[in-house]
Amino acid sequence: MARKTKADALKTRQHLIDVAITLFAKKGVSTTTLADIADAAGMTRGAIYWHFDSKISLFNEIWNIQPCISQEIRRKLKPKFQDDDLQLLREVTIETLKVISTDRRQHELLQILYHSCEFTGEMYSEREIRERYWFNRERVKKILRNCISKGQIPVNTNIELTITLIQGYFSGIIKNWLMQPENLNLYEQAPDVVDNLLVMLKKSS
């Protein structure tokens, strides 16, 4: 039998991660075992332990390899809105919501983050995951400061409070959409969701 190559091992590792994401989203992290993941992946438990020594290491690796979708979108759109931070924020947020609404993997990851996981021990925390992949406070703080300097939002805007309100706004939208998607067409209504937030920003005091 031919010896497995590094490429084969990486492919197997990715397959295990893909299966784990789906099971974690459907069954919950705490009730899914490594044996469940191995079975669903069509592998032995020994095979999964060769790649991951625990469920926590597998859980953390899921997030280690995820790109920040909002940052990727921002890099693509920034040249079009170089001097308009508020419009760039609007367009990036709308496109991020649209990706979330149509990409199965993003849906599963958010389901894990908001509904299918009890964060304990050495697992990455909900805050760490959210800051790294969907909502980074420092990045948003910089954008808001730029908006203030350009007169796009009031000069007396309380930045820290505003960021907390933005975070709560989108967390609530996403959590409710995951639970009852029939109540919100996130793809079609993404502009309305974002524009309602921008009304609040422009009236900040």
UniProtKB/TrEMBL annotation:
Residues in the DNA-binding region annotation: 33-52
Organism: Buttiauxella gaviniae
NCBIfam families listed in its UniProt record: PRK09975.1
Keywords, in A-Z order: DNA-binding, Repressor, Transcription, Transcription regulation
HTH tetR-type domain residues: 10-70
Family annotation (SUPFAM superfamilies): Homeodomain-like, Tetracyclin repressor-like, C-terminal domain
Protein known as: AcrEF/envCD operon transcriptional regulator
Pfam families the UniProt entry points to: TetR_C_2, TetR_N
Keyword check for Secreted: no
Organism domain of life: Bacteria
